[in-house]
Write a structure and sequence with these properties.
Blueprint: H1 21-31, H2 35-39, E1 45-48, E2 63-74, E3 83-88, E4 93-98, H3 103-109, E5 115-121, E6 123-125, E7 128-132, E8 136-139, E9 149-152, H4 161-173, H5 184-190, H6 195-203, H7 216-242, H8 253-261, H9 268-282, E10 288-293, H10 299-312, E11 316-320, H11 324-341, E12 345-348, H12 354-366, E13 371-374, E14 388-393, H13 400-408, E15 415-420, H14 426-433, E16 437-441, E17 451-457, H15 461-473, E18 477-481, H16 489-507, E19 511-514, H17 520-532, E20 537-540, E21 553-558, H18 566-574, E22 583-589, H19 595-606, H20 610-621, H21 646-662, H22 669-680, H23 684-692
Helix pairs in contact: 6-7, 7-14, 7-21, 7-22, 7-23, 8-10, 8-11, 9-10, 19-20
Bound molecules: adenosine-5'-diphosphate (ADP) and magnesium ion.
Adenosine-5'-diphosphate binds near residues 295, 296, 298 and 549.
Amino acid sequence: MRPSILYAMFSPISTLSGVGPRYAKLVENLCGSKIIDLLWHLPVNIIDRRCGVSLSQAQNGQLWTGKVRVIEHVPPKTKKHPYRIVVEDGSEQLILTFFKTYGDSLTKQFPVGGEKIISGKIEIFNGSLQMAHPEYVVDATTPEQMPQVEPVYPLTAGVTNKMMNKLQKQALHCVPKMPEWLDENLLKAQGWSDFNTALCQVHQPQSYADLQPNSSARRRLAYDELLANQLSLAIVRGRLKKQQGRMLQGDGRLKEKLQNMLPFALTNAQKRVIAEIESDLLAPYRMSRLLQGDVGSGKTIVALMTMLNAVECGAQAAIMAPTEILAQQHAETMSELCDEIGVRIALLTGSVKGKARVQLLERLEKGEIDILIGTHALFTENVKFKDLAYIVVDEQHRFGVRQRLNLSEKGQNVDVLVMTATPIPRTLVLTQYGDMEYSKIDELPAGRKPVMTTVMPLTKIHAVVEALQRKLQTGTQAYWVCPLVEESEKIDLSAATERYESLQKIFGNIVGLVHGKMKESEKNAVMEDFKSGKIRLLVSTTVIEVGVNVPAATVMIVEHAERFGLAQLHQLRGRIKRGQEASSCILMYGFPLSEVARARLNIMRQTEDGFLIAEEDLKLRGGGEILGTRQSGFNSFRLADMSQHTDLLLTATKDAALILNQDPNLQSARGEALRTLLYLFERDEMIRTYKAG
Ligand code: ADP
Ligand code: MG
């Protein structure tokens, strides 16, 4: 249950005064639906109304603030003309101009002889100073009403900065005095103030320095957020660790057979990670390990080798892929090898139906299947294993944190290996998985040829099509990836369909189309044709992004590459790196090309090292949208910025471990406060998931 101290902050924005339903919607789209979301919406700039100069020194276009005396009113001659009020500050006169404003209200607001403090933009017209519609007018007797430094928030159409400032003031009033959840020594060492002070400070910046991610107040809040994240991960992890695992020590006979059959030697990196995984499988606790390996680094064989441990012990293993195409591909690769060594393997996807499905499920329950390959279908209610000991989850970044948690609840003391082809920088591994054990295949099999990557404008598409024609004539296969249009799947689809049709006109029936809106069976049929070579040019949206393996496809063209994230481009390019053939990738960009997009394309041209690419990606993106994976379940941060706050992340990770060591159930006074922190940053969900399990 959410602590009652947080109720007000978690109320909807519409409870603030002056926020009707329509306005609430606008604000909601901008920052979120709750008051706390508003509070996490931080200023990006300031307007400084502290002004030292007199009117005689004021510059054209400058913001000017100061005390003036009203001299006279000049009503307009016609409706087209503005209403004018002449004022002066002792050094010079200034004409205030008002369009479409009634004289009545102005005579009240600016009585002749009266003194006002005004603020607005100065314009010089024919040598005289003017100010159209002052932004602020306050009485000279109440100078405190003039905002000195006004924070500027990211806005949206219909939400003005003035309104946003009003809302933020109200929102700050909803924040009760929070207990201190940070360690006293840390606070002292960092020179941080308490939470409430820090929150007020970030909303009342006094200088540009206050807006920087490294200002003291922002660092304090970023730390709070990181600590909440690391603590929740550590809690989940601690629970997993406590669970009993079984010791899977095989006799090595199957593994030896497999190794003798492989047409290649394992790389040193593969051997090392297999050993790391096996030491976990052997240990008496439940394994939960992350395996990272770039596209083509040979994760599949690592998965199979380690699954054989379970099979040698007479238990069962399962491998789960995010799509049917991938599950099928695993089944093909693995069954060739498994048939030879007498390991029984089966594929279960949504399209295995009727009698075949019933039979498969029976065999599974009787233990007549050693390794089951599948999609999420593996974990529907009626799928019962005789003795499931080990699960491998492939291409995990598609699943997301939530599903990962659900997954490990499936089998009692089942060891879990999560494999991902997204190279994740160390810092992000920490924020996504906590200090989960992880293994990294940092070496590609020998003999891989580099991919020649070229970057060119879309205007040269004809030349590209010509070059493609020559390539296709030599028997090469190619991918043509269509632009990603985030706002609309429909446009996305029509772009792909149009490209397909125009390429079909040129190349005839060797062109195929695959996209996310097709039925699994249709997709599979197209992929089959591509694998068999019947289709030689495959037009697609990004559905081919993950894991598809067609060694003869060595050319890739990406349209509007500037719309893709770095990680995504890297994944895509990985598709043509499978064989021994040299391959080429053409990244075509449209205009306008932003600085960041240009930098991304440059990185793609310069390196194929996924880890390097991921680091660069992080630098380019900062903390916001991590690796373009918001939709795929990565934790994202409101305040912490991964390009700036790495030191805080490392400290928070250590801090979290220490806290749980001393107070595993968060029962001390600080523990109580920390619970509030978890709720404050909405990291409670994860913990609840685990309590239920
Ligand atoms: P990924 O890590 O992207 O899943 P795969 O496991 O699909 O990569 O492996 C890519 C290709 O490399 C496959 O064709 C596989 O047979 C091959 N492969 C794997 N390990 C080696 C190795 N040590 N030497 C040579 N080829 C290998
Ligand atoms: Mg793979």
